[in-house]
Amino acid sequence: MHIPRRRFLQFGGVSLLSPGLLNVLAARAMPNQRAEPRQGPRARACIVLFQVGGPYQAETFDPKPNAPAEMRGIFSTTATNVVGIRMTDALPRVSQHADKLAILRGVHHTIRCHNPAIYCSLVGREATDPMAVSNRTAARRTDHPNYFSVVARLRPPRTSMPFHVIIPNTTNNGPAKSPGLLGGYLGAAYDPFVLGADPSDPDFRVDSVVMPDDVSLGRLRGRQSLLQQFDRDRQTLDRLGDVGSMDTHYQRAFNMLTSPASREAFDLSKEPQRVRDRYGRHQQGQSALLARRLVEAGVPFVSVFSHVDVDRGSWDTHQNHNVRVRDQLLPPADQSFSALLEDLHARGMLDDTLVVWLGEFGRTPRMGVNFSNNTNNVTGRDHWCNCYSVVLAGGGVRGGHVIGSSDQFAAYPRDRAVHISELAATLFHLLGIDPRASLYDLTGQFRTICDGNPVTELF
Prior knowledge:
The protein is of the alpha/beta class and about 450 residues long. Helix content is about 30%, strand content about 15%. It has one domain: Alkaline Phosphatase, subunit A (3-Layer(aba) Sandwich), CATH 3.40.720.10. It has helices at about 5-10, 20-30, 70, 115-125, 145-155, 215-220, 230-240, 245-260, 260-265, 275-280, 285-295, 320-345, 420-430; strands at about 10, 15, 45-50, 75-80, 85-90, 100-110, 165, 170-175, 175, 195, 300-305, 355-360, 360-365, 385, 390-395, 400-405, 405, 415, 420, 440, 445-450. The strands form 7 sheets. Strands 3, 6, 7, 10, 11, 12, 15, 16 and 19 form a 9-stranded mixed sheet that branches. A two-stranded antiparallel sheet has the order 1-2.
């Protein structure tokens, strides 16, 4: 028995012998042109808690107690641990961490359907038609790259761990995989490591970081001699002037298989039962806990998706909205988000770990109306990109305040609207990257990474 060669030489979706690797290495050999980062707070790591489908803004962080019942929703307004900041009583645990939160209540863009809106939210650009159909908008190599791929390109992390881990899996809407999660035009070398497993599963096991039972460490180390078989490829790489890149990807895969620290980072059984219970024995909770463990072990960026399939159990509440948010969606979101904030703070990690809670958009203030190209019945809320809430904590963000406001129906920004490109610029700034930085893509085309300006009220 042995490790299949194809399996061993793949890591995080990146094949060390893939036909496109030479292009990746050629692109990486090109000089980057970039401005120096702005002075200011910088996060060492970032965890994105992405609420797939889009939560309703007035039932979470932007309550409207004086609006008509249909618009304010089924929850009451509650005080938080910060005077003047109120949330709904659907978030009782998160409300006790308001002093750590900066709430943006006027985030907006124009994209009305899931996949293109997810793309917009994770690359910071409205790069498609507002009514682009989700199941025809799948990830492509020509896409703009994910925020974290850009950061990894401009400031390569010094770690043997993957620079970006997606938990539990990439998202999709129907048959189409959501764009915006990968390295896009930067190439496969900047794609994330996709977990491909549910951390709440009692039999949770990450094959990519656990050696097969029949392979000893000694045998695995012997496999390093496989590099000798790559001489022909290496001669080609020599001509490209970037031989070391192939070794880097091979070594990272090898380290993930052999490093006790790497394997332990993915092992949730190392956590006390009370900690696992605090996060919640559900996918969102155990995924958030795993995100904390990975950041603690040196992974700089982790994206946790609340749901893998937009059409199954996500925040996409076109029917039966009230029951789903009350019984299925808000309780695990409140538990996992609050536990992560509490845990990071207790461990002294929140100061340099940025946490971002967002969806691709919000939901319509009125029930039963159609705003996207979906069917929406009288018990549901459609997509709503005109105004929704995004929450940030840690990583240099000044907590305990609200930026911007919406109108009386949580339908449109009333003051200090924040476009998605401004959120992108803010994330880059907090991660130590100048939003005006530039680079070359795989084809040698010169690219700027962002069109917006940072939300300076956050710092």
